[in-house]
Design brief:
CATH class of one domain: Alpha Beta
Largest sheet: 6 strands, mixed
Oligomer: single chain
CATH architecture of one domain: 3-Layer(aba) Sandwich
CATH topology of one domain: Rossmann fold
Number of helices: 7
Order of helices and strands: EEEHEEHEHHHEHEHEE
Distance between the termini: 34 Å
CATH superfamily of one domain: P-loop containing nucleotide triphosphate hydrolases
Strand content: 25-35%
Strand order of the largest sheet: 6-7-8-3-9-10
Helix content: 25-40%
Shape: globular
Amino acid sequence: MTPLISLRNLERSFKTPAGDTYVLRRVNLDISEGEFVTIMGPSGAGKSTLLAILGMLDDAWKGEYFLMNEPVHQLDRKKRADLSRRYVGFVFQNYHLLDSMTVYENLDVPLSYRDMKRDQRKSLVSDVLDRFQIVAKKDLFPNQLSGGQQQLVGIARAIVGNPKLILADEPTGNLHSSQAKEIMQLFKRLNDEGATIIQVTHSVLNAAYGDRVIQLFDGWVTKDEPVANSSALKQVSQVPE
């Protein structure tokens, strides 16, 4: 079975006065459709950089990247952006909602970039408002919502277009524990329904919701193992109820 994502000898470096500084080194990964993968590692390990490359927000890298058999490394910037809009949804630590827009309008934004009729967009937004039980919030602005509610809207925005892949960068980093638990349970349900999820997190509790842990250190993949066998999660025996 062809992986959803294949990376071969992926590298990312930055120019410095002392020469090239590598953030990612010779990354080789395969991720199958329907997996829930966690990327862990210390600050500066390259986690967010890898996520940005997977989401095609960063194009200054070398190597091979296949997404759904599409050779991303051979595509120009416009084609990469089109591919990202069709297949990828993003969830950010700081929500990244548009403050001047209502909840409804924030959910409509990613659909507006597609060749989609207004009635179809309205139907998709209405469905996700109902699914996330935030219909009553649709006319509110982000600053009228709690952090947990804003992140809920952020996730709703990520999935409104039915993406194949959800990328989440520290999705509970600004939330208190009960809100974080609700968000992770939501991710688990989305994964159970078939979504492929890749999250970056420092939290072993969050990682326990997935089924695979990839550890980075100084840009290298140092471990790639199932959650059940992960040395990083030995202290977590099960997903909290």
